[in-house]
Each structure stands twice: as structure tokens, then as C-alpha cells.
């Protein structure tokens, strides 16, 4: 059988990739059920999908479900540090996906791969940060007419899509799969919290107990990270621009400070905002010796990396795996993890498969819904239908063996009636 078009590091890694994918599959029972359903119903028959996603074993299991439903898929990496070369090889050689991704590729290769997967002339776009949608609109607008819509699975990407929509620049319906209750709860909160700590520990082997751990941003990701850091015994400081979120953090017992005051006391500082320039030159100048900087908020713009480079008199690359040490003029050392990219994927393996089971199950069901309903949707950002989120939660509870109560007819009537 001819292999799909591809650009991967080494097809000889395919069997190692299969073992990795099958290991993740064990912790993804809901997606497995959806794959079985898709194989029977074929809701994506003949649908071409172009995707920009992390090339990991968990993503591979999502793509297997889409393939079972009939989809024809071309995949580019959304982060060069997160690409698992063995998974990429397995997707091509064993699972029939066109993959264009290599670990450690540069920015030119990243952009080139996005354009390559767009040549697939997609009916659906799967995005992780809005780069694929952005480049489709700016460099290949001729492809928009064929697309029924797409999915965006990150907070950063949804923010960018809403900006495009507000300016009238978004020409197709995009569904914010990031904004479902199950995604925010499991993926953003529990997944980001655990996997970010995992990345920091792998990269530094540092003790967190008794250290001051600064969390920049107290959205769902920041809350999960703060909880996990406190659970490791760290003193947690939160920085935030939203008064409501800052109040929430204070009421949960965290110290809330502006970054000007948090930077000088932080042993570990992690950005999880989805914005840029969260750690700026004035903050870098105030860091204590040995401070660790990491980002778990998507793009590598949350920490001012150009300023850090300019301030350094020496840069020691790879003092540990995915840890670079910047020596400042006064001798202070600042340790940057994963090049300022997502530390949970650059220095670890991202969210546990059990977390991605829920996120990707919702994404698979949403893809089938868009394929069926996309023609009736207006250009813009759309919410995932509530029934999909409920179905994913129900399937997950079944997989966990958890039972719930059900409303009696009298209770349902009571909730409907205003006369009672």
C-alpha cells in the first residue's frame, strides 16, 4: 500500500510509535467507543481534514477515530518541541495519515508545513492556536470556499478567532471546542496543572516544597497549576489583571501581587495567560539568582525572550534537557525552560492520556457535527452544542464506573413550572 504524502524524521520509528499510541489508547476509553461508533456510521466519509496539532500519541488516537469515520487527514505540528518522531512515523506508516512534522524544526519549516497541509484542500480545519486558520486566510484564501468549518482547541486560538470575527475577517464557522465545560475542567485545569509541574520537574529536578512559585494568570489553566504547586508544598503567588479572577485567587488563600512585586521573590515563575510580554525587561532585571522561567500559556511570547537574550552576557544552552541558563552582567543566573515554549510539551509529554480522552472525544463528535451542519452555520465563532459536552461527560462516567442520580418526573415538572 502506498504511503500518504509525508515529511517525518524516520519511518523506521513507526513500530515504537505504535507502542506509544497503543499505551495511550488504554487510558482513552471514551475515544475508543467513539472510534467504534464512527467505524459503523462513517460520519466523515470523504471529508478532508487539515490539522495543526501537537503530534503526540494522544493526538494520534483522535486521528484514528476520525479515520475510522472516513476522514482523509493531513497533519502539521503546532509546536516543534512537542513532536514525537515515533508517533509521526506511526501515523504515516500504520494509520494512513499524511504527516508533516519533525521534532525541533525551525520556524520556516513550521510555516512551510502549514501551507503544505492546506494543499489538502480541507473541508474541515483542526487548529491549535489559530495559526492554520490565520495562514489560510492571509496566504491561501482561495481554500476558504471549500471549507465547511473547523475546530479550535486552545484559549489563545479562540481569542485570536474572536478578534478575526470582530473585524469581519473570519470567513468560515469555527467551533470553540476549548470552551466546553469538560475541556476547561479536565484539560485546562487538571491537565495543564499536572503536566506543567511534570515539565518543570523533568527539566530542573528542583524541590518545589518551600519555594515561592509564581503563577501568572488565574484562568482555568492558572487555577489548576496553582492547586498543583500548592499541593507540592510551594508558596504560591498569583499575578492577574482581571479583578474578578484576582479576587477568586485571594479568596482561595493565594497571595496576589503585581508582577513587579512577584518577580523579585519568585523561585519559579510560570506564565499561563495567553497574552504577550507578561514577563518584561523590568521583571527580568529584578529576578533572584537561579530563578526559573517557564511558559504554559501557548505561544513563546509571554516571556520577553529578546530582552532576556539582550541582557545576558553568556548563554549556556542545555545545562539540563530543555533548560538554558542566561548569565546576567551582575552574575545572576536565570534558567529558561523549553525555549519559552509550552513547558508541559517541550520538557514533558503534555497532558495525561486520560485527560485528552475527554478533550478529543468532544472534538471528534464536534467534527462529525460540523461535517453535517457546517453548511447552515454562519462565519464566526460558535459554541459546541451542549448535547455533545453532556454525552462526553456521560461516557466518561460510564468508563469510570461512576453512577449518578436521575430526576424524577415530579422533580422535572417542578423545575419547569413557575406555579409550584
UniProtKB/TrEMBL annotation:
It is found in: Cytoplasm. InterPro entries: Adenosylhomocyst_ase-like_sf, Adenosylhomocysteinase-like, Ado_hCys_hydrolase_NAD-bd, NAD(P)-bd_dom_sf, S-Ado-L-homoCys_hydrolase_CS. Residues 188-350 form the S-adenosyl-L-homocysteine hydrolase NAD binding domain. The keyword Kinase does not apply. NAD(+) binds at residues 154-156, 188, 217-222, 240, 275, 296-298, 344. Keywords: Cytoplasm, Hydrolase, NAD, One-carbon metabolism. Its EC number is 3.13.2.1. It comes from the Bacteria. Binds 1 NAD(+) per subunit. Pathway: Amino-acid biosynthesis; L-homocysteine biosynthesis; L-homocysteine from S-adenosyl-L-homocysteine: step 1/1. It catalyses: S-adenosyl-L-homocysteine + H2O = L-homocysteine + adenosine. Substrate binds at residues 56, 128, 183, 187. Its cofactor is NAD(+). It is an enzyme of class 3 (hydrolase). Belongs to the adenosylhomocysteinase family. May play a key role in the regulation of the intracellular concentration of adenosylhomocysteine. This is Adenosylhomocysteinase. The lineage of its organism: Bacteria, Bacillati, Actinomycetota, Actinomycetes, Streptosporangiales.
Amino acid at each position: 500500500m502506498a504511503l500518504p504524502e509525508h515529511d517525518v524524521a524516520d519511518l523506521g520509528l513507526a513500530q515504537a510509535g505504535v507502542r506509544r499510541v497503543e499505551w495511550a489508547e488504554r487510558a482513552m476509553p471514551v475515544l475508543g467507543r467513539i472510534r467504534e461508533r464512527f467505524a459503523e456510521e462513517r460520519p466523515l466519509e470523504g471529508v478532508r481534514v487539515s490539522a495543526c496539532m501537537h503530534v503526540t500519541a494522544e493526538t494520534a488516537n483522535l486521528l484514528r477515530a476520525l479515520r475510522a469515520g472516513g476522514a482523509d487527514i493531513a497533519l502539521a505540528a503546532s509546536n516543534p518541541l512537542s513532536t514525537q518522531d515515533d508517533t509521526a512515523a506511526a501515523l504515516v506508516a500504520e494509520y494512513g495519515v499524511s504527516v508533516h512534522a519533525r521534532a525541533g524544526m525551525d520556524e520556516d519549516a513550521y510555516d512551510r508545513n502549514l501551507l503544505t497541509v492546506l494543499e489538502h484542500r480541507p473541508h474541515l480545519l483542526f487548529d491549535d492556536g489559530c495559526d492554520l486558520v490565520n495562514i489560510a486566510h492571509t496566504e491561501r484564501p482561495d481554500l476558504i470556499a471549500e471549507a465547511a468549518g473547523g475546530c479550535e482547541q486552545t484559549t489563545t486560538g479562540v481569542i485570536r478567532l474572536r478578534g478575526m470575527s470582530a473585524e469581519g475577517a473570519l470567513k468560515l464557522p469555527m467551533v470553540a471546542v476549548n470552551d466546553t465545560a469538560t475541556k476547561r475542567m479536565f484539560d485546562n485545569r487538571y491537565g495543564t496543572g499536572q503536566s506543567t509541574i511534570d515539565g518543570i520537574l523533568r527539566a530542573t529536578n528542583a524541590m518545589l516544597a518551600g519555594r515561592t512559585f509564581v503563577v501568572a494568570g488565574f484562568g482555568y489553566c492558572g487555577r489548576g497549576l496553582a492547586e498543583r504547586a500548592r499541593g507540592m508544598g510551594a508558596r504560591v503567588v498569583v499575578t492577574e489583571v482581571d479583578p474578578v479572577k484576582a479576587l477568586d485567587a485571594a479568596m482561595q488563600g493565594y497571595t496576589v501581587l503585581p508582577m513587579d512585586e512577584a518577580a523579585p521573590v519568585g523561585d519559579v515563575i510560570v506564565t499561563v495567560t495567553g497574552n504577550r510580554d507578561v514577563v518584561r525587561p523590568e521583571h527580568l532585571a529584578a529576578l533572584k539568582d537561579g530563578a526559573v522561567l517557564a511558559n504554559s500559556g501557548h505561544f513563546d511570547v509571554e516571556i520577553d525572550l529578546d530582552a532576556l537574550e539582550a541582557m545576558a552576557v553568556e548563554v549556556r544552552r542545555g545545562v539540563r534537557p530543555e533548560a538554558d541558563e542566561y548569565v546576567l552582567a551582575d552574575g545572576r543566573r536565570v534558567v529558561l525552560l523549553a525555549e519559552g515554549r509550552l513547558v508541559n510539551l517541550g520538557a514533558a509529554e503534555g497532558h495525561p492520556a486520560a485527560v485528552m480522552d475527554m478533550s478529543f472525544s468532544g472534538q471528534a463528535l464536534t467534527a462529525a457535527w460540523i461535517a453535517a451542519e457546517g453548511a447552515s452555520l454562519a462565519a464566526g465563532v460558535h459554541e459546541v452544542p451542549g448535547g455533545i459536552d453532556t454525552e462526553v461527560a456521560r461516557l466518561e462516567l460510564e468508563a469510570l464506573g461512576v453512577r449518578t442520580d436521575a430526576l424524577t418526573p415530579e422533580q422535572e415538572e417542578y423545575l419547569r413550572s413557575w406555579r409550584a
